[in-house]
Every structure is written in C-alpha cells, then in structure tokens.
Amino acid sequence: MSTKRTKYLVFTGAALFLLVGGVSLIGYIFDWISPKPTYSCTGSGTAKLLKEAIESGPLSTILNIAVYQVDNNQELSHEDNKLLCIADVVLNSGNKSIRFTIERSDDGSIRLQTGYLGEGR
C-alpha cells in the first residue's frame, strides 16, 4: 500500500469517526438540555387534563357529565414516580371531590387515572 493511500484512509476513517461521534454527541446534548415533562397535582395543566379525562370517559359520555370547574387540586402523597392527588370538581350534577393519580413512566410519558367521586369537601 502506498503512503498516500494509507494517509487518505487514515484521514477518511478519522473524519468518519469524528462525524459519527459529533452527531451522537449533539444528540446527547439536545436530550440533556431539552425540557423534561413535569408533573404535579397543583398545576393548571393538571386541572385541564383532569377535566378532559373525566369528560372523555365512557360513563361520562353516556351520562352526559360536564365538568364546569376543577379547583383546589392538591397532593395527598407521593411515591417514586406516582402522586396521589385530590381535587374539587364542579359538575353539571353537583360538587364532587375526586381522587386521582399521576404517574410518570420510564419513557417520560405521564398518565393520569381518576378514582373515587365523593361529595364535595
């Protein structure tokens, strides 16, 4: 093999290595600096999500339940990636207190699950 060809192959290999490594490094940097989804019981986004979850449920659709307001949402307890919350909900059928959980899965997605509807606090 000639010296010229060897230098060309070394240069091409190094350039390819740096290009692939640079692209991977940029991907890691973007993952690191991009905002992560947060979750809490008290956020206005949580109240909106809770309203949508209640109204879109199959039983709510059958019974024509409408949510007028979600208020006083707060955290009752928390575990590793799971929050137990409570909120006061004003429905077309009256005031109710609802317990719900917010859970963050390993892939970063957030799941809200509604629970018991009781009389208002």
Explain what you see:
The protein has 121 residues and is α+β, with helices and mostly antiparallel strands. The protein has two domains: 1-34; 44-119. It has three helices and four strands, in the order αααββββ. It has helices at 3-33, 44-55, 58-63; strands at residues 67-78, 82-91, 94-104, 110-119. The protein has a four-stranded antiparallel beta sheet with strand order 1-2-3-4, with helices on one face.
Question: What attributes characterize this protein structure?
Answer:
single chain; alpha+beta; 2 domains; 36% strand
Distance between termini?
85 Å
Shape: rod-shaped
Helix content: 40-55%
Number of strands: 4
Number of domains: 2
Number of H- or I-type helical stretches: 3
* Series of H and E elements: HHHEEEE
Low-pLDDT segments, ≥5 res: none
Biggest β-sheet strands, sense, barrel = 4 strands, antiparallel
Mean pLDDT: 79
Q: Proportion of β residues?
A: 35-45%
Whole-number radius of gyration?
A: 26 Å
Cross-sheet strand order for the largest sheet: 1-2-3-4
Q: Structural class of the helix and strand makeup?
A: alpha+beta
Structure summarized in a few sentences:
Helix content is 40%, strand content 36%.
Topology, element by element:
Blueprint: H1 3-33, H2 44-55, H3 58-63, E1 67-78, E2 82-91, E3 94-104, E4 110-119
